[in-house]
Amino acid sequence: MALTAEILFINPDYLKRLTNLNGSVEDSYVIPSVIVVQDKIIQQYLGTNLLNKLKSDVSGGSLTGNYQTLMDDYVRKAVAWWTM
Predict the structure, then answer these.
(1) What count of other Cβ atoms lies within 10 Å of the Cβ of residue 67?
(2) Of 52, 48, 42, 44, nearest to 7 (Cα)?
(3) pLDDT tens digits for 38-55?
(4) Residue 13 φ/ψ, nearest 5 degrees
(5) Which of 20, 29, 71, 73 is most buried (most C-beta within 10 Å)?
(6) Taking phi first (over 0 means left), then psi (-120 to 50 degrees means alpha), and beta for anything else, what does residue 63 get?
(7) CA 29, 50, 82, 58 torsion: positive or negative?
């Protein structure tokens, strides 16, 4: 059984730039934490429908307007800090 690709709202480079995470930390240690934060914490605040909409837009490259603002100004920063 193949695993489906996870849609991440932030990448490890974003996390390292925004936080005190050392640049020598391997990305493979960071990514599972990002997934958990999105699925366990962010989903509680956004709800399943909005979370799925954002994931769909991010994966399709069609994130625009208020959804882009929500993602850039709030969601990505929250994911970064909760990941830490």
Answers:
(1) 16
(2) 52
(3) 999 999 999 999 999 999
(4) -65, -40
(5) 71
(6) beta
(7) positive
